[in-house]
Specification:
about 55% helix, two-stranded antiparallel sheet, Rossmann fold, binds magnesium ion, about 260 residues, 10 helices, binds adenosine-5'-triphosphate, alpha/beta
Length: about 260
């Protein structure tokens, strides 16, 4: 099915377009089959969040923007699904926050690293870390290829943005003393629970909103930004997100 065959008035048009994009990038080796399945789990959570950015997510986006602006060495970690869905936006976000971009794959192969680098460069990235032998450092506690990171990127970072990450790796990054900002539609995942700031939203909505928020806050004082970060409580925020799911489901139960 081609993207153009999705009728605009289809109730799931947006969701279907995202699927088609992932399939397209799956065919060229950017996305792996596991990535398609992971997206499906995300879609289910998006469904019961009403497929929109909820207010607790907006609060998390504000805290994330302030954290990125306060960072000394922020790094944005990119996997196959992120490259397929929001490559242009990631490049813009990196530019306005002075962040490095690093390819960081759960299923790492040189071929995939190179093609993801290509997608990011085509989207305007000047430098892409974590490709091939550059990913020579290791995250302690993780096994195999999943632990490789770039010594000039995630290893050195004080703040790491992980739009879509696995729980083990999020926990390991937090243990290394990094401030971790995650984007995850599932407020119950280990990633969501272990990150310092979790944005419970779809990456396709969250990254553009994060760019807007950084643009709004970029000239604020350090004190004001620190206050925003201090006022944010991830556990409370996740509880609010779960509350929103419960509310959405009980409203649905009334109409069925
Ligand atoms: P964890 O490893 O954190 O405990 P998990 O093992 O349940 O979580 P993974 O398979 O590691 O989950 O990652 C898939 C998760 O990624 C999905 O459950 C979903 O929440 C999240 N996800 C997938 N696609 C998107 C998307 N487009 N936007 C935001 N989150 C997404
Ligand atoms: Mg996982």
């Amino acid at each position: 099915m081609n993207e153009s065959f999705i009728p605009e008035n289809h109730p799931r048009a947006e969701s279907l377009k995202i699927r088609e994009k992932l399939v397209k990038y799956f065919k060229i080796g950017v996305v792996v089959p596991e990535g398609l399945i992971a997206h499906g789990r995300g879609e289910a959570f998006d469904y019961i969040l009403g497929e929109k950015t909820i207010t607790p997510a907006l609060d998390a986006i504000k805290a994330a923007a302030a954290t990125l602006l306060l960072a000394n060495y922020p790094v944005i970690s990119v996997n196959g699904n992120v490259a397929a869905l929001v490559a242009n936006e990631i490049v813009n976000l990196a530019k306005i926050t002075n962040s490095k971009i690093e390819v960081n794959l759960f299923n790492r192969t040189l071929e995939r690293e190179i093609i993801i680098q290509k997608v990011l460069k085509e989207a305007g990235a000047e430098e892409v870390l974590g490709v091939g032998n550059n990913a020579s450092a290791k995250i302690p506690e993780l096994s195999s290829e999943r632990r490789r990171v770039d010594p000039n990127g995630i290893l050195k970072a004080d703040v790491v943005l992980v739009p879509l990450e696995d729980g083990d790796r999020t926990e390991a990054l937090v243990k290394m003393g990094k401030i971790v900002i995650a984007i995850d539609l599932n407020p119950l995942s280990r990633t969501s629970k272990s990150a310092n700031i979790t944005i419970v939203d779809n990456v396709v909505r969250a990254i553009p909103k994060l760019i807007d928020e950084v643009s709004k806050l970029r000239f604020e004082s350090k004190e004001k930004l620190q206050q925003i970060v201090k006022n944010f409580d991830n556990k409370k925020n996740l509880n609010l997100c779960i509350g929103r799911i419960i509310e959405y489901l009980s409203n649905q139960a009334k109409v069925v």
